[in-house]
Design goal:
By secondary structure, this protein is mostly helical. It contains 13 helices and four strands. Helix 10 packs across helix 13.
C-alpha cells in the first residue's frame, strides 16, 4: 500500500532506534478516541450483528379477520365479552364505558397482557377502511385522539379535574390493589379473575400469582405514601386514604346539579373513571342486568364505599346508561 511522507519519516525514526514523541494534535486525537470511541472488539460484534428495528407485533392470531366493528380487547371472561358485560378490570372498564357512553360501536374480546401487541390491556383493533385495509392495534392512551373524543372537562375545570383524578391514582387505586392482590382472604378472587383463565399449569399459576403480587406491591409503593416506619405498606393508612377520597368524590357529586361529575349533562371521562373502580369494588354492584357479580372476602374497601350514598347511586346510574347505550347500538344479545 502506498505510504505518505509522514509514514516514511516514522519508519526512518524507528529504524534508527529513536522513539517518536507524538505531537499535541495526535495525543489529543488519541485521547478523544479512547474516551468516546467504541472498543474495536465490540465494534466488530456490532458490525456483524447490527441493530435492527423490528416492525410492531402482529395482531392476535384469533383476531377476527373480517370485522365490521372496532374490536376492544379487555380483561373479561369469554362469555362476559360475548354478552358485553362490564370488565372486572378498572383500566379496561374505563375505556369500555367511555366508548359506550359516547355511543361508539365496538365488539369486545377477552384477552390478557401476554396476548396484547402493546403489552397491556385494553387495546383496540380498528375495523378496516378503504384507506387502510389492515390497521394495526391502538393502545388505550391513543383512543381519545383516534375517536376524536371531547376533552374531559371544560377549560375552567381542568385543574379541578386533575386534582380529583389524583384521588383515584394515589388513594383509591393503591387501596384497591392491596385489597385484591395482597389480602390473603381475596386470593381466590385473584385466581378466578386473572390467573385461572391464563393457564391450567399449577407451577405457572403459582409463578403468575407471585408475579402479580410483586407488581401490585411495587405499584403501591410507587404511587402511595402509605408506608410505615419499617418501610412496609400500612394497610390501615391505605384504606383511610381511600375512605377520604370516597368522601371527597361524594361531596363533588352532591355539589353537581346534574348528578354527573362537574355538572356535565351526561357521563363523561371522570364518570367513567370513577365508575370503573366503584363497579369493581362493589363486586359488580351485585345488581347487574345479568345478576352477575363477585364477592370480596375482605370487605373493608367496599364497606367504606357503601357508606357514600351518592357514589353508590352514581354507580347504579352509570350502569343503567351503559346498558341503555349498548342496547341502542345493538350490542346486547
Amino acid at each position: 500500500m502506498p505510504q505518505d511522507e509522514s509514514s516514511n519519516e516514522d519508519s526512518e525514526a524507528h529504524a534508527n532506534g529513536q522513539a517518536q514523541k507524538p505531537s499535541n494534535t495526535t495525543a489529543s486525537t488519541l485521547q478523544r478516541k479512547s474516551l468516546f470511541s467504541v472498543p474495536d472488539p465490540i465494534k466488530r460484534i456490532f458490525d456483524s450483528f447490527p441493530f435492527v428495528t423490528y416492525s410492531p407485533n402482529i395482531s392476535p392470531a384469533r383476531a377476527p379477520q373480517r370485522r365490521q366493528r372496532d374490536v376492544l380487547y379487555i380483561f373479561s371472561t369469554e362469555q362476559g365479552a360475548l354478552q358485553g358485560y362490564p370488565s372486572f378490570n378498572p383500566t379496561c372498564l374505563k375505556w369500555q364505558a367511555l366508548l359506550t357512553f359516547h355511543s361508539i360501536p365496538h365488539t369486545l374480546r377477552s384477552s390478557t397482557n401476554h396476548a396484547s401487541p402493546t403489552g397491556a390491556l385494553p387495546f383496540l383493533l380498528p375495523s378496516p377502511t378503504p384507506a387502510c385495509t389492515n390497521p394495526g392495534p391502538i393502545s388505550s392512551s391513543k383512543l381519545p385522539k383516534h375517536f376524536s373524543l371531547p376533552p374531559p372537562v371544560s377549560a375552567p375545570d381542568v385543574s379541578r379535574h386533575a386534582a380529583y383524578e389524583t384521588l383515584l391514582t394515589h388513594a383509591i387505586r393503591p387501596a384497591y390493589l392491596y385489597a385484591l392482590y395482597l389480602c390473603a382472604t381475596n386470593s381466590r378472587l385473584v385466581s378466578t379473575l386473572y390467573i385461572e383463565p391464563c393457564t391450567n399449569s399449577a407451577p405457572v399459576r403459582t409463578a403468575l400469582s407471585v408475579s402479580l403480587r410483586k407488581a401490585a406491591y411495587n405499584e403501591i409503593v410507587k404511587s402511595s405514601s402509605s408506608l410505615g416506619l419499617s418501610g412496609l405498606i400500612d394497610p390501615e393508612e391505605l384504606f383511610a386514604n381511600a375512605r377520604r377520597a370516597f368522601e371527597a368524590l361524594e361531596t363533588l357529586l352532591i355539589q353537581s346539579s346534574s348528578g354527573w361529575f362537574f355538572g356535565s349533562e351526561g357521563p363523561e371521562e371522570m364518570d367513567a373513571n370513577v365508575w370503573a373502580y366503584t363497579y369493581v369494588i362493589l363486586g359488580g354492584n351485585g345488581r347487574t342486568k345479568q345478576g352477575r357479580g363477585w364477592q370480596w372476602q375482605d370487605s373493608r374497601l367496599s364497606g367504606d364505599l357503601k357508606n357514600c350514598n351518592r357514589l353508590t347511586e352514581h354507580a347504579v346510574r352509570c350502569e343503567e346508561v351503559f346498558w341503555r347505550e349498548r342496547g341502542k347500538m345493538g350490542l346486547v344479545d
